[in-house]
Every structure is written in C-alpha cells, then in structure tokens.
Design a protein that fits this description.
The protein contains ten helices and ten strands. It is of the alpha/beta class. The chain folds into two domains: 3-23 and 84-301, Rossmann fold (3-Layer(aba) Sandwich), CATH 3.40.50.410; 33-82, no CATH class. It has a six-stranded mixed β-sheet with strand order 5-4-3-6-7-10, with helices on both faces. Strands 1-2 form a two-stranded antiparallel sheet. The chain has a two-stranded antiparallel sheet with strand order 8-9. α4 (108-125) runs antiparallel to α5, α4 packs across α10 (287-301) and α6 runs parallel beside α7. It starts with a helix and ends with a helix.
C-alpha cells in the first residue's frame, strides 16, 4: 500500500469502511457492475424475470433448463446494478486551517481529508467511480470520476497535496461544478460552509436540479460551536492575515451564539427543503465512525 494511503487511513479505518456499502437513494447511471440499482437492463448478477425469446435476442441468454421443462424458449433478463458516479469536494480555504484544543491535533482541513479518504476507499472498493475537487475561491484541482483500483493513488496524492490558506466562495464553486457533473450521481461536499446561508442553499438547489444527490458534511471545531474563550483574546482571520482584533470574548459570546444559531437553522432548513443531506460533524469526533453512522442512516432510510 502506497504512502499517501497510509498517511490518511489507519488499519481500523480500513477495516471499518471496507465492510460498508453506500447505497444510492436515487437511480443512477453507469456502465459497469456495482452495488447501485438502476433501471438499465443488462447482464448483472441479479435475476429479474423470464421473457419469451424472439428472433434477435442473444442466444446465450436462453434458459436451456427451462426449455427442457417447457419445450419453449425463454431468455433470462437481469436488472443491472450500475456503479455510482461520485464527486468528493474538499474545502481548502483558510478557515479550514483552524484547530482547537479538543480537535485531537487535527485542523478542520485535515479532518476533511481523512473523511474524504475513507469515503474514497469505500466507493472505489465497491466498484464505484469517484472523482475529486478541491477549492477555495475557485476549483483548484479536479479529477474526473474513475472506478479503477489504481485511481485511489491519484486521489490520495491530490488530497495529501491539498493545502488550505485562501479566501473562499462556496457559491461560485458549486455553480462551476455544474459543468463537471454531467452524469446523474452523488456529490459529497466537505466544508465548514462559511458564507451566506441563503446563497449557499440556492447553489445546492442548482446541483439538485442537475440530477445530483447532494450530501454536505459540515465540519466544525468545538470552539466554533460553544465559543469557550474567557480572557481577552486576539482573533485573526485565517483567510486575510491583515485582519485581526483584540476583544473581550465574554461580551461577544451571547451575540456570537445567537448569530451562529440563526446561520445553522437557515442552512438546515434550506437543505431539508431541497432534499440535501446536511451532516454536522466536529473534529473531535472519529471521522470513520461519522461515515459509518451516516451510511447506516442511509441504509435504514432506504
């Protein structure tokens, strides 16, 4: 196993995600056998029904055992289970550099990369096509979806080379993805989603209207959730180094938490209305367990 894979995935993580099967909620298009049900009819492993043979049908599809019993020609028809076309989108903006005291030493970006690595490993190993996009103010890296096992190496190397540091515009990025996602599929967005909630929701709705199932893993540091600062603190922008201010956090805490709550409610409501899965995750959590729980939820819901 190559170095980038070892860098991002531990042995327990590999064991956990290799046993999972991500079942798509909607009919997806594909050309090779996978685990996701499609309306395409082809030669897959799941039998659907017998149909009377007519001239022009492939003779290899004839059920000769049934012919021996009925003296009539029937062909075996199967329901194709095609692979999923998936694009994983990783935020590498400056705000993703943040790492608090409860994050196990991981920045939000490092957590996002590990989560993406687990997801990529899972999808490729169940023969799904996986692509990758990294972004800040625009898409910096784009790798089209592929399902070959050696494609993992390409994905992991791109993840390992992803470095956070610039400003971001998630809305522009999501709209630019429309030209890349030409096939019906699944888009995973791993980001802190900082920005105007209503504008982000509109961009997510555009992806949904483009026949994409959308899942957003919103990455938080615990400090951003409960604002634990007590003494005078210097706050610096991670996207614009020149922006900094010394404040008494106890005076800001109430207003901060109120604004945060409104932002989260607005984003949650918009995602729910547009049938976008919004999964809120803290960097103090186990990224592999986060993925396991989410897939279990999808499976139960399906």
């Amino acid at each position: 196993m190559k170095a980038p894979l070892l860098r991002w995935l531990s042995a327990p993580d590999l064991s956990r995600v290799s046993q999972l099967q991500l079942l798509a909620k909607t009919v997806v298009e594909g050309v090779s056998g996978g685990l996701h049900r499609s309306h395409h009819v082809g030669s897959s492993i799941e039998f659907k029904e017998h149909c009377p043979y007519v001239p022009g049908d492939e003779t290899r599809s004839i059920d000769w055992k049934l012919f021996g019993k009925t003296d009539r020609l029937y062909i075996r028809q199967y329901e194709d289970e095609t692979n999923l076309y998936c694009t994983i989108v990783i935020d590498q903006s400056g705000s993703m550099r943040y790492s608090g005291s409860r994050s196990n030493g991981l920045s939000k970006h490092e957590f996002a990369v590990r989560l993406a690595a687990c997801l990529s490993y899972l999808l490729v190993n169940q023969q799904d096509a996986v692509g990758l996009a990294t972004f800040d103010s625009k898409i910096r890296t784009y790798i089209p979806p592929r399902s070959r096992p050696n494609h993992l190496q390409v994905l992991f190397e791109a993840m390992a080379n992803s470095k956070p540091g610039n400003e971001t515009d998630l809305c522009v990025v999501l709209q630019s993805l429309l030209s890349q996602c030409k096939q019906r599929g699944l888009v995973f967005i791993i980001s802190d989603c900082f920005g105007d909630a209503q504008a982000i929701v509109k961009s997510l709705a555009l992806l949904r209207s483009n026949h994409q199932e959308v899942v957003v893993f919103q990455i938080w540091d615990d400090d951003e959730i409960d604002f634990p600062f007590q003494s005078r603190t210097m706050f610096r922008s991670l996207e614009m180094d020149s922006d900094q201010v010394m404040v008494d956090p106890t005076r800001l805490r109430s207003a901060y938490l109120e604004n945060l709550g409104e932002f989260r409610r607005s984003l949650q409501q918009g995602c729910r209305q547009n049938r976008v899965d919004l999964v809120s995750v803290c960097t103090s959590e186990s990224y592999s367990l986060v993925l396991s729980n989410y897939i279990a939820t999808r499976r139960n819901r399906a």
